[in-house]
Amino acid sequence: MPLTLRSPCKVNFVLNLLGRRPDGFHELETLFFPVAAFDELTLDLSEPGITLTCSHPDLPVDASNLVHRAATAFLRAAPLEGRTGVRIHLDKRLPLSAGIGAGSANAAVTLLGLNELLGHPLAPADLDRLAAGLGSDVNFFLQPGPALAFGRGERIEPLPPFTALKGHALLLFHPGFGVATPWAFRELARFPQLRDGQPGRAAAAARRFLDGDVPGGVDQWFNALEGPVLEKHPILALHQESLRNQGALGARMSGSGSTTFALFASEAAARMAGGAFRQAFGDAGWLHVVPLDV
Ligand code: C5P
């Protein structure tokens, strides 16, 4: 029986960088918030080998695809009797190179799905180890809620649901062009104050939301990568400003961009603002409203 699973995405309420590491990565602390907008993955066991198909023509389906890499890593690590292969179809609905972690979620859901299909041969700690080898954001998607993350982003501290956000809504907008994550991090060399931040910001924001102080939490929103990315793409700063003028409690870039997210007090307010945003900027790009039922 094939297994069909939804593969979500995320925004970073806080993305604070704490310096460049000897391995070339950046030490970071981030507050991840899960977003219920989805790709869909269908997995089925097959003859040995990995066959990946995808609805999106721009996405390679060879061994370079993160889903393919996740399946390879899983089948190598799992103690399986006999040789098993897998057929995977990825129905891509979320934008690419968007800073919302959709590709990382695809990889995490592949690990979780294969583990389910094969009767749980791997323990959560094994999945965590495989996820860390696939990318910095993959570990977050092995668990369902908001979380703090440290290190490269792979050390996760799960948090309780942010119940104070119930009834609010997030608006996400991707402008149709992407940002290459390695470029954004490399450019930080020109922004030493943003690259070498002070620790504590992600936890401070989380504390406010958990205390029920939504405006206080939004006040703590921060993304160090906005330095290089908004300089190169000033239109993204205009997107934020426009959404604030339309009543957003806050608006920020997610991850390395180019997606902007904004929080509204209600779904109706977010949809109104989305209409005004379309009037101002036109119909190009991907605009999505996600009610928060937390
Ligand atoms: O780990 P992931 O594949 O998501 O990272 C993509 C790129 O982003 C890395 O190759 C690196 O250039 C940069 N990066 C970084 N520090 C991090 C995470 C990512 O410099 N903590």
Question: What does it look like?
Answer:
The protein is α+β, with helices and mostly antiparallel strands. The chain is built from ten helices and eleven strands. The strands form two sheets. Strands 1, 2, 3, 4, 5, 6 and 8 form a seven-stranded mixed sheet that branches. The protein has a four-stranded antiparallel sheet with strand order 9-10-7-11, with helices on one face. The model has no long low-confidence stretch (mean pLDDT 97). The protein binds cytidine-5'-monophosphate. Cytidine-5'-monophosphate binds next to strand 2 and helix 4.
Primary descriptors:
2 domains, alpha+beta, binds cytidine-5'-monophosphate, 4-stranded antiparallel sheet, 294 residues
Task: Offer a quick outline of the entry.
The protein has 294 residues and is an alpha+beta fold. It has 10 helices and 11 strands.
Number of strands: 11
The tally of helices reads: 10
End-to-end gap: 31 Å
- For the record, the count of structural domains works out to 2
Strand content: 25-35%
Largest sheet: 7 strands, mixed
Roughly how much helix do the residues carry, as a percent range?
A: 25-40%
Radius of gyration: 19 Å
Output the CATH topology of the largest domain: Ribosomal Protein S5, domain 2
CATH level 1 name of the largest domain:
Alpha Beta
